[in-house]
Amino acid sequence: MPAIISKAPGKTILFGEHAVVYGFPAIAVPLTAIQTKVSILPRLKNNRSLIRFRNPSWKEDIYFENLKLNNPVRVTVENISKLIESKIPNFEMTVSSSIPISAGLGSSAALAVSISKGFSQFLGIKLSKEEINDLAFKSEIVQHGSPSGIDNSVVTYSRPIYYISGQPMIQIKITKPVHLILADSGKRSLTKDVVKSVREKWENKPNIINQIFEGIGDLVKKAHPAMRNGNIHLIGKLMTQNHSALQRLDVSLPELDHLVNSAILHGASGAKLCGAGKGGYMVAASTLENTESIRDGLLSAGARNIISTKINPT
Ligand code: MEV
């Protein structure tokens, strides 16, 4: 039997992270230049299921029963087996990913989505995108506590989306390519911890934090038509304003601010941190002709890695 293979992309939130957890809109796009790949085979002659993790920074073989209870592979496989209400056969799963971990680029959502797709196929069940998204969301809840659902949604549908938690997402029709340059600050953070720190601030100073969230919500509403029309200058300007709002939420870092400033200095229309913050990557938007200069500028400013990609017309 040939291996079942499934893949899922990374993501970046272009507008609205954190505020989206509190019911404000956000915009996210898939990053198909980076992805998680899952390959699954039956393990007929062996009575233990084996998971083989193969990432640039980490290689590990571990029996399924030895995975931590909250491990996304374990959570997703167990949720699928609950769904089909039957015992699962032994399997060997290889998980490889080019999505940096704890870097704001959707590695946990891509893992949950690729396993939901691949493992259900391995068991011979055809799940709809909606069902895959629900399974991935359940795994995200175990990983992050109170996720908005934007990460699993953009990764499952692999389309630019305008998202409000609990509402049907809106696919954004892109008319002109938007070039993105993402740079690694070299720092890492856990989404769960950063989301918790924002919640504490919101509980202590609800008026100030709600005002920041409302400001972010207004930016997102302006960004939606700008994305549809491919107005790169407005997209960039709003991204930089979103970064300032995230600084006020205290989720940036000097390293991220420095990269954001360097990108703008070297010709980006705008830039911001991406994901929960306190580490990870930042993202700059640009016209095609400025991408090289931005890339060089970011590397000189200390970026540990660069991902250059574009949002294609849909
Ligand atoms: C994390 O990628 C985005 C956050 O807004 C959390 C969430 O939406 O669940 C920080």
Give a verbal description of the structure.
The protein is of the alpha+beta class and 314 residues long. The protein has two domains: 4-170, 2-Layer Sandwich (Ribosomal Protein S5, domain 2); 173-311, Alpha-Beta Plaits (2-Layer Sandwich). The protein is 41% helix and 24% strand. The chain is built from nine helices and eleven strands. The protein has helices at 72-84, 107-122, 129-144, 150-157, 191-204, 206-229, 232-248, 254-265, 291-300, and strands spanning 4-15, 26-42, 50-55, 58-63, 91-97, 161-163, 170-171, 178-184, 270-273, 281-286, 306-311. The strands form two sheets. Strands 1, 2, 3, 4, 5, 6 and 7 form a seven-stranded mixed sheet that branches. A hairpin with a 2-residue loop joins strand 3 and strand 4. Helix 3 (129-144) packs antiparallel against helix 4. It is globular and about 60 Å long. The mean pLDDT is 96.
